[in-house]
UniProtKB/TrEMBL annotation:
Similarity comment: family membership: Belongs to the homoserine dehydrogenase family.
Protein name, as recorded: Homoserine dehydrogenase
Domain ACT, chain residue ranges per copy: 359-432
Lineage of producing organism: Bacteria, Bacillati, Actinomycetota, Actinomycetes, Pseudonocardiales
Function recorded in the entry: Catalyzes the conversion of L-aspartate-beta-semialdehyde (L-Asa) to L-homoserine (L-Hse), the third step in the biosynthesis of threonine and methionine from aspartate.
InterPro entries: ACT-like_dom_sf (IPR045865), ACT_dom (IPR002912), Asp/hSer_DH_NAD-bd (IPR005106), HDH (IPR016204), HDH_cat (IPR001342), HDH_CS (IPR019811), NAD(P)-bd_dom_sf (IPR036291)
The keyword Flavoprotein belongs to this UniProt entry's keyword annotation: no
Broad enzyme group: oxidoreductase
One Gene Ontology molecular-function label: homoserine dehydrogenase activity
Length: 437
């Protein structure tokens, strides 16, 4: 290795993640050199406010991002976030043949197509392991290790903030608002938690997961998204009563024509983010607090679970460094990592046509014929009932119904019509059910 030309790295961003990237690059320099086969040299660090106090070499700081990207660096590591100007910087780097490592899920979810095209045109690498589930090795297993298999489903808890809140509601019985306040006080939720609690963050990650798992281009706009703000203490209690727990899930599933029930329908995919009840025995049910986990099902490999820290400076920097080593190794041998694989181009089904199951909890009048009126609405919408449980009270009854799979549109229409029946006093809780049939 003596005399081996160094791999020069431009770091864009030096906040929570970037600071840890610099620390790992510095602390582990001799090991990284040995692993890559050449020294990895930090050529510059782009920030917005150069005078801010930080634990990084001051002489490397710059605000001239374009000049840094255009300099003789081999690799650009982007940990700034947001769409612009990150998109412009990375396109410029890729077009110039510089490899890119990024943790930017928002950018990847909306612009992976043009980024991959730029990378392919110049033969550069584009790696983004940290963009989904932080430290957890997940994207490279999907992109490389499982490239010979047929993935059928990816179900993930990919947002730590919402998992922290839902876990808190489950353990204390407190309301969403109370638990969000606690999560903010403890620093788990940001001052503006919208991107997390409304499911935007998870939807970006779902788009990236679906694109890789199904060899298709899926954007965040194509992901059906529901957040957790409407999850009530009653929903959590209803789940508990049935041995289930409520999680915000990112679900990416392959739907073949026969499953869809539509004659002649070809294969498609459903990509969605919403709260759902899962059995307490499901591997994802035990994932609590701010942890992430992703459950992958594939034809030959069967079921796999990836679990760990989905955020935080050091865990995320670990994934960034893993990518940096990979792209640096490729450059040393003048090779290249995998290109985009979007050949399957599977269409994304609208949510109304996605196969889902519902749990419905009702307060109804307790008198003869009520159950048959409710059941008739299900039959009318061609929705099959899997479980019915009734609890008699003094002058009314609690009715819990869990359905078999039907299209989401049929289930929604069923719930709307049931809510209007005179014998139904209140629709207490409606939640999708996942992880069992
Ligand atoms: P921070 O907000 O902590 O850091 C952003 C950095 O980018 C700061 O150093 C900031 O400079 C710099 N920056 C912002 N705008 C510009 C600009 N116009 N020109 C130059 N520099 C700029 O973000 P994080 O470190 O938390 O996140 C970075 C990326 O990593 C995002 O894409 C995020 O989604 C992703 N990510 C983050 C995780 C986490 O746990 N934090 C987990 C997984 C992914 P300055 O310091 O001067 O303000
Ligand atoms: N805001 C994200 C979360 C972290 O709560 O999981 C980074 O993706």
């Amino acid at each position: 290795m003596p005399g081996q030309k160094p791999i020069k790295v431009a770091l864009l961003g030096c906040g929570t993640v970037g600071t840890e990237v610099v620390r790992l690059l510095t602390d582990q320099a001799p090991d990284l050199t040995a692993r890559v086969g050449a020294p990895v040299e930090l050529a510059g660090i782009a920030v917005r406010k150069p005078n801010k106090h930080r634990q990084v070499p001051a002489e490397l700081l710059t605000t001239d991002v374009d000049a840094l990207v255009e300099s003789d660096v081999d690799v650009v590591v982007e940990v700034v976030g947001g769409i612009e100007p990150a998109r412009t910087w990375l396109l410029k780097a890729l077009r110039a043949g510089k490899s890119v490592v990024t943790a930017n899920k928002a950018l990847l979810a909306d612009h992976s197509g043009e980024l991959f095209e730029a990378a392919d045109a110049s033969g550069a690498d584009l790696y983004f392991e940290a963009a989904v589930a932080g430290a957890i090795p997940l994207l490279r297993p999907l992109r490389e290790s499982l490239a010979g298999d047929r993935i059928t489903r990816v179900t993930g808890i990919v947002n730590g903030t919402t998992n922290f809140i839902l876990s808190g509601m489950d353990s204390t019985g407190a309301s969403y608002a109370e638990t969000l306040e606690e999560a903010t006080r403890l620093g788990y939720a940001e001052a503006d938690p919208t991107a997390d609690v409304d499911g935007f963050d998870a939807a970006s990650k779902a788009a990236i997961l679906a694109s890789l798992a199904f060899h298709s281009r899926v954007t965040a706009a194509e992901v059906h998204r529901e957040g957790i703000a409407s999850v009530s203490a009653a929903d959590i209690a209803a789940a508990k009563g049935l041995g289930r727990v409520v999680k915000l899930l990112a679900i990416c599933e392959r739907v073949d024509g026969s499953e869809s029930g539509e004659p002649g329908a070809g294969e498609s995919i459903s990509v969605r983010v919403h709260p759902a009840m899962i059995p307490r025995t499901h591997p994802l049910a035990g994932v609590s607090g701010a942890f992430n986990a992703v459950f992958v099902e594939a034809d030959a490999a069967g079921e796999m679970m990836f679990y760990g820290k989905g955020a935080g400076g050091a865990p995320t920097a670990s994934a960034v460094l893993g990518d940096l080593v990979a792209v640096a190794r490729n450059r040393v041998v003048s090779g290249r990592g995998p290109r985009e694989s979007a050949y399957a181009a599977l269409p994304v089904r609208p949510m109304g046509q996605a196969p889902t199951r519902y749990h419905i909890s009702l307060d109804v009048a307790d008198r003869p014929g009520v159950l048959s009126q409710v059941a008739a609405v299900f039959a009318e919408h061609d929705v099959s009932i899997a479980v019915v449980r009734q609890e008699g009270r003094v002058d009314d009854a609690g009715l819990v119904i869990v359905t078999h799979a039907a299209t989401d549109a049929a289930l929604r229409s069923t719930v709307d019509k049931i809510g209007g029946l005179p014998v139904v006093r209140e629709v207490v809780s409606v939640m999708r059910v996942e992880g069992e049939e």
